[in-house]
Amino acid sequence: MVANAGERIDYRSGKWIVPDRPIIPFIEGDGIGPDIWRAAQRVFDAAVAKVSGGKRRIVWREVLAGEKSFQASGEWLPEATLAVIREHRVAIKGPLTTPVGGGIRSLNVALRQILDLYACIRPVRWFAGVPCPVKEPQKLDVVIFRENIEDVYAGIEFEAGSVKADKLRDFLLDELGVKTIRESSAIGIKPMSKVGSQRLVVKAIQYALDAGRPSVTLVHKGNIMKFTEGAFRDWGYEIAKERFGGKTVTEADGGKGKGEGGKVTVKDRIADAMFQQVLLRPDEYSVLATPNLNGDYLSDACAAQVGGLGMAPGANVGDGFAVFEATHGTAPKYAGQDKVNPGSVILSGAMMFEELGWKDAAQAVVRGIEGAIGAKRVTYDLTRQMPGATEVPSSAFADAIIEHLA
Ligand code: NAP
Predict the structure, then answer these.
(1) Binding site membership of 228 for ligand 1 (Cβ less than 6 Å)
(2) What's the rounded Cα separation, in Å, for the pair 374 and 362?
């Protein structure tokens, strides 16, 4: 059995222990999933072989989820798949169809909750040659750490005019001293905890330190929501001081966000101002740590700014578990045509290598993508905006990436 040729990745004292032949489960994905996965796997194998001289190799292990699984077993997300991912700790996936019909959870949400993948990480940078709406796209190079479990993801809502909403309104007015809530209002509650916020900020700061990035910005709406958004900011500063006191400096204490003295500057911005900042002064930002909803908006806005929504990679990471994924959907109309851009899942693989400490392989993949785009041998989505580019299938885009790994 192929799986026996590899070993498990482990996680001890906050660190990944990665053997030379790690077993990594993958979910191919629905729709265009098989097309992009085929292309991506070749790129990953070539990159690892190239940088390690053949010493390292990934032992891929397919696990089923989504339509492929439903057809095989009648289950969208079998317990066996979760058990394998739990055992091997790190997995990578293509897009999955969201099953239509009652009682079935979104597969992505299920994976996130079951493995407590509390940080959604989205790096956003420009690749030379990719068309985009701003003049100096190269100035934006950020990694967004978005809280992945709380805030609106744990949101509780009561419908306008419902008995529960009216009951809650009465309780808020009569018992909690709330002054006004208009009659027949819908009411939403968003819980944000200290522990949930701080573990996210810790991950962001640790990443900045490991990657040599100069600043971490806490993005919040604390001027309006003091005890949730404002607390996110305060808890962030508190844990930065407590856990990384000697390695961080706040802006208030003179940190300029230029990595002075090897220290990471911790600063904060109000969310609406942040949207202006990434457009007007993008090079002043490096790592962004956000509650769930702010990060949702900001990730897509930043990706759009560099023309990269279609190629944006993502990762959902917890303590000792991580699932890397393409951020686009299954684009069913292109399924089986070897046509679409495999860039998102390929860059997710680069993130996976970086997370596991295989920085050389991550860099090779990024070089390969830069090279293929530079050579203008790209898939249809990029050629339709890149004058003079040659349209190639997914598989040939992978070939071009592999040619440029070195
Ligand atoms: P989608 O699959 O992302 O496709 C929307 C459009 O985006 C496509 O028609 C295509 O645009 C473009 N596109 C997407 N991936 C591309 C790629 N790799 N290369 C080039 N172009 C790409 O969004 P959707 O149609 O809303 O969703 C379809 C299914 O995917 C749904 O079941 C949804 O729930 C699911 N979904 C899953 C995930 C996930 O698993 N993470 C995420 C989002 C959606 P053009 O038509 O302009 O060529």
Answers:
(1) no
(2) 18
